[in-house]
């Protein structure tokens, strides 16, 4: 089958908005590509299976402390993969996929294999390239990713920036054309490097964060100008307050154990009335359909109202957004905020940052909802949209600025935002915001001229996962007496999600996926894959199978991303194929199923992904395809997550976990199943409001896992 035939064969009868572009050039670029040699992650130091199992059991497999350990040996091994691959034998996608096989052919020799090989080749090529992305490692100690991941490719490019070097500087300085964006085309085609999950990274030198603005969004790397202007948010009250129903398990939230650590935590509140919010806020809360506080709200609201810094960790879908928005708005109302008006330089009182465009937009809509009828004006700005549009939104007035990091830094560089008035800095998905991807940007933000010091502002961090390393980094942003709220287990999966893990080899995945989706029928389903190309491929494949599907990933234009999300939300396309860009935060009504076609590289991402279902007391189901060849490093943490969420653990998964178990590592690497609670421990005082209570300080050691 020639290239033309291939293009003709992709029939899209059920595609609405999703129009993948299969450019032959893109897929034949693997001519010199090298194979990524998947390395089984079992690297136990023990030879004998039974003694390994004994040791495994003795070492307390069921205890968090042992389970959380990631094998550094494995980490090293995985780090080296790209290097190995770099000298491996190349396979050409074009030859194997297009020329020799038809799309419908068997998995082992057909397109699928060709796609995989071509894809892997490309990843290897990227990771080998000199200068920018020459060596890829794990995300510090807490970010193992397979080398073929979208994230990893980006990460490799930014790695030269060093742990807290400038992501942008690192990208822009090299000046060679051998960049990710030069390959990936559409979504990042405006010339900027599309960093991590979402941002366009441009610029050069020490003031590189100014360049997106000054260079008309393309900075010093040439590319088309971004002209996309997102549609305005709904104006009618019904749409603003549209919400979905809490589920049958909403009341069970009350039984979740909550721990607050840090000194002099204010007592939790049990009702909205106790929060003493102003009438307008109360009315908005009622219109939003909130009658009862969720646990994270019960604890966080009084803490924030009391002016304290906060790090809060609560399960996915349990209302963290309102937990910070409501008290911030209450403060603003109480302090008598001045109504926004047109000014060239706006000085917002609150800045909220989140890692992805869709998520920050969602937070903005929530802020707009809760501030309805007040003089507080929320504004959202994010990459992939016309820069001038962002500026126009801001100059009209801005009390709460919701932004993705890249666009925020650019707008600050353009001097449209002054930071002197900032009283609240919120990092949603804070562990993501502080990791090596966005950490440098966040550090720059807090050291920008005018930004009040941490003593003078209130800093709030929220996530469902909080690795210990990240908690330690967070200290730089927070006052030393910050409070730590842990609802349930830090990093634990939501119990309302039924988790099923199936052992499926990579060449059987498509067939299994179709089988499952046919059984599911029209129920909304998110299918997660590891790479952008695979997202395109699987979406196309499903459409060809007559399953209405759309896709979202970082190579799609922002317009397409929003259209895809819209089509999924309204049910026009009940299947959304997504990369990690959609793993965190997205709150979409009626997502009944999450399918991990590819498991993510870290257990945290798994927790976030499956949290797209089973939200707000509703139930959901997550099915994960576990490929023993590539996913064995996840076996241990997966067993832990499953058992802690009281899910069935397949015997075969336990076996793999046994066989890959390596004793003797302390629980502090990113492979941890969970971070412990508050890394400061020893200052712990549990809540006094009825869930559990203990004033006894805990020693700072691994025992804090329990
Ligand atoms: N007290 C409440 N009563 C009813 N619904 C609520 C309440 N609090 C939040 N919700 C709703 O629950 C849903 C999930 O909330 P939210 O998106 O804030 O969760 P989250 O904890 O931030 O999740 P994630 O970890 O995935 O980001 C939203 O639709 C929100 O409007």
Structure description:
With 706 residues, the chain is α/β, with parallel strands linked by helices. 35% of the residues lie in helices and 11% in strands. The chain is built from 28 helices and 16 strands. Strand 1 (193-195) and strand 2 (199-201) form a beta hairpin. Helix 14 (295-305) runs parallel beside helix 15 (320-334) and helix 15 (320-334) packs across helix 16 (357-370). The radius of gyration is 24 Å and the shape is globular. The relative contact order is 0.15. It binds adenosine-5'-triphosphate. Residues 243, 246, 289-290, 292-294, 297, 314, 316-322, 464, 585, 587, 611, 615-616 line the site of adenosine-5'-triphosphate.
Strand order of the largest sheet: 3-10-4-9-8-5-7-6
Helix content: 25-40%
Report strand %: 5-15%
Give the beta-strand count: 16
**Total of helices:** 28
Biggest β-sheet strands, sense, barrel: 8 strands, mixed
- Detail the poorly predicted runs: 1-222, 664-676, 682-706
Shape verdict: globular
Secondary-structure-based class equals alpha/beta
